[in-house]
Design goal:
Elements: H1 3-15, H2 23-33, H3 44-47, E1 51-52, H4 53-59, E2 61-63, E3 68-72, E4 75-81, E5 89-97, H5 100-103, E6 112-123, E7 128-134, E8 138-139, H6 146-153, E9 157-167, E10 173-177, H7 179-182, H8 192-195, E11 208-214, E12 218-231, E13 234-248, E14 267-272, E15 281-286, H9 298-302, E16 313-317, H10 323-334, H11 337-342, E17 349-352, E18 369-374, E19 381-382, E20 385-388, E21 393-402, H12 405-417, H13 431-449, H14 470-476, H15 508-518, H16 524-538, H17 569-590, H18 599-620, E22 626-628, E23 640-642, H19 645-660, H20 664-667, E24 678-679, E25 686-687, H21 690-705, H22 708-724, H23 733-744, H24 753-772, H25 817-835, H26 841-857
Parallel strand pairs: 1-9, 8-14, 16-17, 16-18, 18-21
Antiparallel strand pairs: 2-3, 3-4, 4-10, 5-6, 5-13, 6-7, 7-9, 9-10, 11-12, 12-13, 14-15, 19-21, 20-21, 22-23, 24-25
Length: 860
């Protein structure tokens, strides 16, 4: 806002004597400024006494609870006692019903789309109730001087106001009419359209309050809100069923636990001020349930005996869940019992079907944590939580389980385990086999609802060769030390190895993380000491390593990747490729369905190509990779360690064999006589020719290999060694170009179509990346769309996972990156000059074309 306007308004407020006045005082002051002539005459309506709540009750339905509710025909009133004025409530909004248009967009029942903390304030002068909201992430000691400043600089904001419609006999509670905040007229409590991305406004004449329920600690309002969306010039009606929960927060928040970067928990940001500071203390509170022993069991607990928690964590299974999957989902919850026993609690988690006779049970009621089953074409699952932002306490968790997640599970198992497991080859799995996969996903998503983040570094703890050992895999019981990794199925094990433990399971890290997050301590001092000791006890053991999730397009630490297995991506990739060839050789046989089209075979074929691309990405991350260690003072670890030179060289060797030189058995094989790779799209199945797909994917890999950030990391590592005088071998940008160029331009004379394609992709990737550094307008980095439909399962927590950000990209135009890329183009040009007159006519035309392209790029 303009400063002059601010000052003008401020002077006006001073004139009225209102600079620090309340809205009620402002209204009162305006009345005193009126002349007698301007004062309104008293009318019957303005002079009569306020209505009594008892009179409203006589006209409608009265229910007692957190707020007593009164419903008079279509009007809804809340009776708010003075004792709850000023208390903090959490508003939790969820989707309850969705039409097809929204379902197709990936929005489904059970999704929590908006939360906020509010308080109600009674204004006796204006006869109103004001509603204010605050972001409660700041605190200070009550008696410190700075607390006055904290209150003024982190104040509440008004979001709504209600007229007081009635009051009880002794004026200790008032009634307000709340229709406008639930029927779509106002967005203050529930802005569903903005939060789900539909935009627009609610059509209030087509919207209404459906049901109101009140309980001792929360209140539930269900509404039907209607809008319209325009598709192809036609307005389509969209009615969303929404549920708003109003939850009373505890006067004293749970004692928070401070996050540590060496253990992966979701967290809530918090700022702490006090008089003794020399700077503000910024903390992260981990999100976790309030799990504590009963008062009579605390001594037993501290002696090391297992005790039951005062309040266990209970999950209800959506009655809409198909019967054959219920027990497997429940088993996935109970798999965590052993982890909580490590934290000192027995029977800490419970999973069950709701009682059919419980009329109050409601999936959208925050008193119940529910694994909600969504009928949807979406193939996913997620585990969000409702959190008290003051402390990180998880109040309720809801897992959204999309029906079509089974399509992803089936594809993973067929492609990753089909060669070693006959049960994973058919078009339809047995209920038992699919059920075990469902159990794994249940365990993973439930882990998120305990506050656990993905640990993408866990799988690096297992030596690749050990994944081929029946003894090792039987002992470890999974593919990684953590089920919170995306270490899917064991694609390393080969036929004949005898490995049968090929499914992810809860592991050593998971039990350790739950102990760190949930073990109860009697005071902050003992807690802080014990938690630090627990981490330091295991900090050098790779089984307890936490590797943060990274953006797959910008992976820096190759140890922490999605979908990878083992401590050596090159070895794992080679074993994976052997198994993948078996899948491709048998793909038509495994998908045979008499009289049916080949569409499903084409989709599985695309999945196999996607698996090859995953292996390529896992290996490529080693080139220019940096090991990112979570270090603290007192640790002798280096925070940043370049991937060893020999490892990077082996990675490039792998890429040359399996990505730069495309595997012909994958792209050009008998399958293509029956079907091309098929991708799902909104317009239906989308067929992709092998040559087109191969060309695009090869280009994307070459471009990614020479991305500026990767080369800058290599240059920085070279600079460190140059400055320090280290004699340690390093892998340089020149080494990278020499190795790749030597493989691509090693043939003189007649070239095949694929060889010409590879050379063109190499040259074009360099030209495009150089040109992008000198574009006048800011543009996003090139992202090559390879048109793959690779299934993933992800979690959702309402905000990003706080991915680690490290800047390697600043001022790229003046870095050595462009110099190296242009020098490489010149080296290729010199090679082409030597071969331009060799080979057949098509090859000579190809050489001439590349020479022209490079000369234009270099302005020659």
């Amino acid at each position: 806002m303009n400063r002059n306007i601010l000052m003008k308004n401020y002077r006006l407020a001073l004139y009225l004597g209102l600079a620090l006045a309340s809205p009620a005082a402002f209204a009162q002051k305006k009345d005193t400024l009126k002349t007698d002539k301007e004062k309104p005459e008293k009318t019957e309506s303005s002079s009569k006494k306020a209505k009594k709540i008892e009179d409203l009750v006589k006209k409608g339905t009265y229910k007692k609870g957190l707020f007593n509710t009164i419903q008079v025909k279509t009007d809804v009133y809340f009776e708010i006692p003075d004792s709850l004025m000023g208390r903090q409530f959490l508003v939790v909004n969820k989707l309850s019903q969705v039409p097809m248009q929204v379902n197709e967009a990936g929005l489904n029942k059970g999704m929590n789309y908006e939360n906020k903390v509010i308080s109600f304030y009674r204004d006796t002068v204006a006869k109103k109730v004001w509603v204010k909201t605050v972001v409660p992430r700041v605190s200070s000691p009550e008696n410190d001087a700075i607390t006055r400043s904290v209150k003024d600089n982190f104040s509440e904001s008004v979001i709504e106001v209600f007229d007081i419609e009635a009051q009880n006999n002794d004026s200790t509670s008032v009634a307000i009419k709340v229709n406008k905040i639930f029927d779509g007229n106002q967005k203050s409590f529930n802005d569903v359209l903005a939060n789900v991305g539909l935009g627009g406004s609610v059509k209030s004449n087509l919207s209404y309050i459906e049901k109101v329920k009140t309980f001792p600690q929360n209140l539930v309002v269900k509404s039907q809100l209607t809008t319209s969306v325009n598709e192809g010039g036609v307005d389509l009606p969209v009615t969303l069923g929404v549920t708003t929960n109003l939850v009373l927060l505890a006067k004293t928040p749970m004692q928070p636990r401070i996050a540590d970067s060496r253990v992966g928990f979701f967290s809530e940001k918090h700022w702490t001020f006090n008089d003794r500071q020399q700077k503000m203390d910024e903390q992260q509170f981990i999100t976790r349930w309030r799990l504590e022993p009963k008062d009579e069991d605390k001594e037993k607990y501290l002696r090391g005996e297992l005790v039951e928690p005062k309040k266990p964590i209970v999950y209800y299974i959506d009655p809409a869940t198909p019967i054959q999957w219920r027990e497997k989902i429940i088993a996935g919850v109970y798999d965590w019992q052993a982890a909580f026993e490590k934290a000192g609690f027995k029977n800490a988690v419970i999973a069950k079907m709701p009682d059919d006779k419980d009329e109050d049970f409601d999936i959208d009621d925050v008193r119940y944590s529910v694994i909600t089953y969504a009928a949807s074409p979406k193939a996913n699952a997620m585990g969000p939580s409702v959190v008290d932002p003051r402390s990180g306490e998880i109040i309720e968790s809801d897992i959204i389980w999309w029906h079509n997640v089974m399509t992803s599970l089936q594809e993973w198992m067929r492609i990753q385990t089909g060669p070693v497991d006959a049960k994973a080859r058919g078009n339809v799995f047995s209920d038992e086999h699919m059920g075990e996969a469902i159990r794994f996903v249940s365990s993973h998503e439930v882990g998120h609802t305990f506050g656990l983040k993905h640990n993408m570094g866990a799988s690096f703890a297992f030596p690749v060769e050990s994944l081929r050992s029946k003894e090792f895999t039987d002992k470890m019981g999974g593919t990684a030390p953590s089920i919170m990794d995306y270490a899917r199925y064991n694609y390393v094990a080969q036929p004949g190895d005898g490995v049968t433990a090929i499914t992810p399971k809860i592991g050593v890290y998971d039990k350790y993380a739950i102990e760190w997050g949930y073990r109860w301590y009697p005071d902050e001092i003992s807690e802080k000491k014990a938690l630090r000791n627990l981490i330091e006890k295991h900090q050098d053991d790779p089984m307890y390593f936490y590797g943060e999730q990274q953006n797959y397009l910008e992976t820096i630490d190759p140890r922490s990747q999605s979908e990878d297995l083992g401590d050596d991506a090159m070895k794992a990739g080679e074993y994976g490729m052997k198994n993948l060839k078996i899948v491709v050789d048998n793909l038509l046989k495994w998908t045979y369905d008499d009289g049916k089209a080949y569409t499903d075979a084409g989709k599985l074929y695309l999945g196999a190509i996607g698996q090859w691309d995953l292996y390529t990405g896992h290996v490529m991350a080693n080139v220019g990779g940096i090991y990112l260690n979570n270090t603290v003072f007192g640790s002798d670890k280096k925070a940043y360690e370049a991937v060893p030179a020999e490892t990077q060289k082996r990675a490039v060797d792998y890429l040359i064999r399996n990505a730069v030189n495309l595997p012909e058995w994958l792209f050009f094989n008998p399958i293509t006589e029956k079907t091309y790779p098929v991708k799902n799209s909104p317009m239906g199945p989308f067929e992709q020719t092998p040559y087109t797909l191969a060309r695009g994917m090869q280009y994307g890999n070459i471009y990614s290999l020479f991305m500026d950030d990767r080369l800058l990391r290599m240059l920085e590592n070279e600079l460190k060694h140059e400055v320090s005088g280290s004699k340690e071998e390093i892998y340089t940008v020149e080494n990278l170009f020499d190795q790749i160029r030597g493989a691509i331009f090693n043939k003189k004379g007649k070239l095949t179509i694929l060889e010409k394609m590879t050379q063109k992709n190499y040259v074009d990737a360099l030209i495009v990346s150089v040109n992008k550094l000198f574009e006048k307008t800011a543009v996003k980095a090139l992202k090559v769309d390879n048109n793959l439909n690779i299934p993933t399962i992800c979690n959702f927590h309402g905000e990003e996972e706080n991915l680690r950000n490290i800047n390697y990209s600043s001022m790229k135009r003046v870095s050595e990156v462009t110099t190296y890329k242009r020098a490489e183009l010149q080296k290729v040009l010199n090679l082409l000059y030597k071969t331009e007159y060799k080979g057949d006519e098509a090859s000579r035309a190809h050489y001439a074309d590349l020479i022209i392209r490079i000369k234009e790029a270099l302005n020659k």
